[in-house]
Amino acid sequence: MKVIVVEDEPNSLMGMKKAVESLDMEIALFTSSHAEEAMEIIAEHRPDLIVTDIMLPGMTGLDLVEHFAGEHYHPKVIVVSGYSDFEYAQRSIRFGAADYLLKPFDTEEFAEKVRKSLLLIRQEKDQVRYLHEQHTFAQMGNQLMRDNYLNDFCLKHTPLEEHLYQRLKLWNLAWLADYSYWVIVIDAKGFPDGRPAGKNDALQTFAIGNILGEMLAGYDETAFFKDSKQRWVVMTANAEVRESIHSVAEVVKRYQYIDLAIGISAAAHLFEQIHFGYQEAVRNFRMDSLSERTESPGDPDSSLSNGVTPDEMATLICRLDEESVARAVNRFVRDTVMLDGTQNRGDITRGVLNYLSQIHDSLSVKTGKELEEIPMSVWESFDECATLQEYQQVLRNYLTDLSRRLFAPKTNALVERAMEKMAVSYMEDITLSRVAEELSIHPVWLSQVFKKETGHTFTDYLAELRITRAKTLLRETSMKIYEIAAAVGYHDLQYFGTLFKKKTGETPKEFRYGK
């Protein structure tokens, strides 16, 4: 606690100072013998207790104290005086002096009065702190109860009954029953199924909530809270909030380096529609969280008004219509993500694999062939998908490859065997003569039939194979360029660089880092 002693008589000031210092209490003590100096100290430090003589040079101690008396500063005051005039005592009482001492006084008596005043100050501060804490706890409890109710409304259909309406009025949420509103779900991208528990995730959630709170502070008919998966949910009847909510993403990106996913429901018109609005917002949020880009109505992937059934997809595969297959796959994956029953990435994977199994069954009927089981590598690829585009890519690649294997014209068996050997041994010192010897045919004949079937010479095909692998290693590994050259079969680094630029238009270094 802070104490100032103001006394113009040096010996008295020294005695009062020692008396205060003798107290076994934590005290920041200031002393002054001039009213002007004391005013500066009081203005800067706002002491809890002012001990002042009445008669000071330039003004009285009472004038000094009354100068600071105001709405926001209420120090305790002990008045010390050599005068017994009752007028001084009355004036001291009027501005709230804690005590009044006449000189000469006993030092122990003075110290005791200061100690009692400081104990009273501490007690009053503790009481104010306690009341503030109780008010804060009450507010937190009320907020927690409100958020729990809102979460319940989101998770299950809730009829509007009288007691609920009264609660809505208590929380200034009656607009959920009286007006149209939107439900918005917000969180960092990459968590379509909700966040794992962890300190870093909690800090991200807190940072997003801070910015969201500042942005929404000036809007009426708006509430926000965390759902059961630690995503922020905004409910608002204010169209301006709905229109400007994406500005939150810009601010979070700029200051926190976090990419946000946002899902917004259509307008709901009844309180009972909160549950459905929340589900729709979650579906849109999940789509945005899984997407690497924003898809517009003009995207070719969105041109199919209805989904393609497994039987229709099998027909497209039989026709070798790869463009239509790709469009249908994109639409199917988006529809799967948006299904009501889809709660996480595991549900997406199961939905895609079930669809794929039905396509296999339909193709077996159409071709009269027993297709092999879906390879485990495809299952694993789906499990590793983290974005909408990755799911689409894996399914497109599999169906396109399946179509080619089933219906594309067959390549000469010897050429196929040659290509298989090249795919396995491209990193070795493989030659046309070596492959021809392993196939027990003449090199010249292999060269001619290879060019006829593939449209490439043996050497060109091998170079394409090696450069394609080198591109993958450059982008996906930290191997040095000379190590990559050797790994794909080139031990002359300069020749590798020249060939790479001829095939790609870039040097290996330019390709790795971009021009």
Automatic annotation (TrEMBL):
CDD domains: REC_YesN-like. Residues 2-118 form the Response regulatory domain. It comes from Cohnella yongneupensis. Residues 416-514 form the HTH araC/xylS-type domain. Residues 289-308 are annotated as: Disordered. It comes from the Bacteria. PROSITE patterns: HTH_ARAC_FAMILY_1, HTH_ARAC_FAMILY_2, RESPONSE_REGULATORY. Keywords: DNA-binding, Phosphoprotein, Transcription, Transcription regulation. This is Response regulator. It holds the Pfam family HTH_18. The modification 4-aspartylphosphate is found at residue 53.
